[in-house]
Sequence to fold (361 residues):
Amino acid sequence: MSGGVDSSVTALMLHEEGYEVIGVTMKTWDYADASGGKRITGCCDLDSINDARNMAVSRGFHHMIIDIREEFGDSIIGNFTSEYLAGRTPNPCVLCNTFIKWEALLKRADMMDCALIATGHYAQVRPTSVTTSAGSEERYVVSRGLDPNKDQSYVLWGLEQKNLARTRFPIGGFKKSDIRQMAVDSGFPELASKSESYEICFIPDNDYRGFLKRKEPEATAKLTHGKLVGVGGEELGEHDGYPFFTIGQRKGLGIATGEPLYVTDILPTSNTVVLGRKSDLDRQEMWVRRPNFQSIPALEGELEAVTKIRYKDKGTPSTLVMDGDRVKVDFHATVRGIAPGQSAVFYNGEDVIGGGFIDRN
Fold:
């Protein structure tokens, strides 16, 4: 329970259905240090924790705060900084769902003899029978939430079968407006009117560059005065550190040209950022590492799918094939702005086939 409307209504729904509910809020980081002294707002701040506790107490079910700062620091913050220093754009919410909100939460659930966990994600999960070359087996499949504007299935591709089997998404079959109305009808209008937070929870001021400088001062200091070059190798200027750039970035390049330029590649070994025209961002194939499959046990042969390369991407028809331990994705049309480190998620209609992290070719 983050203290927001989605997780709060999730708890209310389950409580009203007769489940024995234990609300859990996870302390993931040190709030005082998170934003370099700036005021902290958004989900998971201290006010939100108090909101979660007060709601639980008012309805007569237990609430607890669990300290997972060590796990969060190792799995999420450590990966976040190392990915940027490797010239990639990380996906902390995917890692958090895989290693924190499920692995860590289920560990505590077992300690408290809880059979299931539930979250306020706009997604759905169901068991289904899948026929494979080895026979038939039951698998748990994640599918899109009913509200297309809030669907969060993209960030859930990393969940394993054993975790999905114990997961419920009570609000996945509702629209956001329905959830806000439920909060009002349940006597919590202040929840319904809460603004939503879109920042990374441990960077509430949305300044990831400042966060990197605070977390990795020596490493980022060494990366100044790198080269900005064109796609043909011509020198265009200097940058103040390649970790401060992302593929597709247009603003804040530090140079003035007669035409719009975009970051098309990041080369950490030479401390170089490559700039090009918008068309230079177009690709028709990519590689995906560390794949996890949900609706199928493994990728055998070629498979047709719709592939999303970012959360708000509508998806592009593609052909998937395993090549060693990576998935090769051949798009049926060009896609723009493929960023190594981001998640690629494969869909069959409404269902998540699986996903992985976009790799360098």
Q: What stands out?
A: Residues 35-42 have pLDDT under 50 and may be disordered.
